[in-house]
Amino acid sequence: MIKRLLLSAMACIAIATTFADEGMWLPNNIKERIKYMRRMGFKLKADDIYSADKASLKDAVVQFGGGCTGEFVSEQGLLLTNHHCGYSSIQKLSSVEHDYLTYGYWAQSMADELPVPGLTVSLLVSMEDVTERLATGEKKEEIIAAAINGEGYRASIESIYYGNQHILYVYQTYRDVRLVGAPPSSIGKFGGDTDNWIWPRHTGDFSIFRVYAGKDNQPADYSEENVPYRPKRHFKISTNGVQEGDFTMIYGFPGNTQEYVISDAVEYVANVSNPMKIALRTQRLETITEAQAKDPAVRIAYAAKHANIANSWKKWQGESLGLERLGTIEKKKRYEADFAVWAATKPEYSTLLDSMRTAYANCTKGYFVRELFNESVGAIEAYGIAHKLRQATSTTAEEQLAYRQKLLKDYNPEIDRTIARQMLTEFIARMPKEDIPQVLTKGIENCGSIEKYIDSLYNNTKILGSAVLKNEELMADPMLEFENIFTNTVERNKAYVYRNISNVPAIEKWYKTYMQALREWDSERAFYPDANFTLRVAYGTICGYENADGEYHTHLSTLDGVIAKENPAIYDYDIPQELRDIYKNKDYGRWSINKNGSPTVPVCFLASNHTSGGNSGSPVINGKGELVGINFDRTWRSTMSDIEFDPSICRNISVDIRYVLFVVDRLGHAQYLLDELKVN
């Protein structure tokens, strides 16, 4: 057995290395990669993945909400995504009386599907390389305006390779999206923050929605007259399962990678940015967790907030450890030293690295100040409420009150007061002293301490209450005066509101030339564009990995692992009694598989696809283009893959579609959904 597992691990690594499955590739250029994909087991053609002229798999993939992916799985607009992607929507629809987070929700017919206010999905209509059009003088605004020619259309031009190439993306956004089904959080979020980013994983991370449209199949605001959207293409489901070495493809919207940054950027991430952000979020999470444990209403109200804070918090920890383990900083420095030798004889590149390092040195302080502000003062909810109210001062007093009440939904002033004390303390301690606003320093001195200063704000503000405030009262409110301190100082520096430090214009301008130089020098390297939340293809294989010396992690987890972890005393591990009963009786029906001679149910699997944030909810398809799982995470040792991808251990985690169907069938008792999915 050990020998077989070792051989499997070596085979996975060999496949990843041989066929270069690292990367997030543009779907309209996938013909350049199709030969590698076919050698690994892909059976379809390039135009089955993306076509501008006919329905293709890209028409079955959507941007879900503000930062996830989803996929159509029926002719009637039924859509799968992750539970954590639908989490905030489920939370909005939940209350103590109807706690869909804890107990789940299953519509038994379309009439039971719940509208989610504000939730949208966007379909990619087309993408076009407009680099030459821009070079010949066409205006970006004119190209975008000409592309928007339908209901719900929006368009943008995104640069890749740091401005060496520009792609026009046209989307159509649908505004009537309804919740169809969600497992209880003890399944959909099984393991909570403890298991997040960890393998083996046993999380049924899925939720089900349906997209509705007008009778003409075009986007429309919510109406009882709307009908299910009819997608051009949807994924067929395979219940045949996955085996080690099987081909897999991820189709989704990865959010952010930094593959080509120089060592200065990695040093900033690993040694400056991540440690600060982890420390501040740790304090916020401890405060919220303690309050949630005391009150079920607070647990529901702060569930989505807690999850949003915790996800990146844990990811950054794994990323820093991974960068250290790989020696990424030193590896980058050696690569740059070799590049510098080559560039020394080329006048256009000879001083490029020096210019880049100077730019980082000049911009690091300002970028850190902005990040520190975002993670400290900017994380105080009352500050955010005040900021939004200032931007909405043209409304009447009654409209302003209604807006405040909307902002105060799921808000707890005592939790926020505690966090405000912590975050302002951290801001003062970590901020360069010369950049601390003098009016803030004076205000704290007048009160005697940061704690008393915060108490004075919260005791005297009226924006956190229910009183009608005239505009002059609003502007004189102490919380708006507090907000104004930073609007006039730290926050006015909009130059640092960028995805990464390398995207600050003074730095980024050098990367356009750097990418040109790298492609000349390192001509054998496969250069894929960094992720920027546009549609990408990533391919790989079902594959375990060696987690530590003598410790091999296989590719599949099962219901046996769920039961081994379950604990009624812990919210995140307290599975439904019905699931315990099913396990006890081994009553798995058609979802049963055999593992080491015993029946069980598959839950999650590993593959070597290159993923990032935004890929959550992405379809995982087999060589025939059939849906076999839903991507939802990476292993903790993989989180550095946003900067460096290591094929030996970088693995994405997906929920097995068979577990999704098992839960829908045996716990949701939603046979009509199985009928719609045409699962035999």
Largest sheet: 11 strands, antiparallel
Rg result: 26 Å
- What is the CATH third-level topology name of one domain? Thrombin, subunit H
CATH class descriptor of one domain? Mainly Beta
Q: Please state the second-level CATH architecture of one domain.
A: Beta Barrel
What is the mean pLDDT?
A: 93
Strand content: 15-25%
What is the count of helical runs? 26
**Shape from CA axes?**
globular
Summarize the structure.
The chain has 26 helices and 22 strands.
List the helices and strands and how they pair.
Elements: H1 2-19, H2 34-39, H3 46-49, E1 61-64, E2 68-72, E3 78-81, H4 83-93, H5 100-103, E4 105-106, E5 114-115, E6 121-129, H6 131-135, H7 140-147, E7 153-160, E8 165-174, E9 176-182, H8 185-188, H9 192-195, E10 207-213, E11 227-228, E12 247-252, H10 263-294, H11 296-301, H12 303-326, H13 328-343, H14 352-375, H15 381-390, H16 397-407, H17 413-430, H18 438-447, H19 450-460, H20 471-475, H21 478-487, H22 505-521, E13 536-541, E14 545-548, E15 551-553, E16 556-558, H23 559-565, H24 577-585, E17 593-595, E18 598-600, E19 602-607, E20 619-621, E21 627-634, E22 652-656, H25 657-666, H26 671-677
Antiparallel strand pairs: 1-2, 1-6, 2-3, 3-10, 4-9, 5-9, 6-8, 7-8, 9-10, 10-11, 12-13, 12-20, 14-15, 16-19, 17-18, 19-22, 20-21, 21-22
Helix pairs in contact: 4-12, 10-12, 10-13, 10-14, 10-17, 14-22, 15-21, 17-19, 18-19
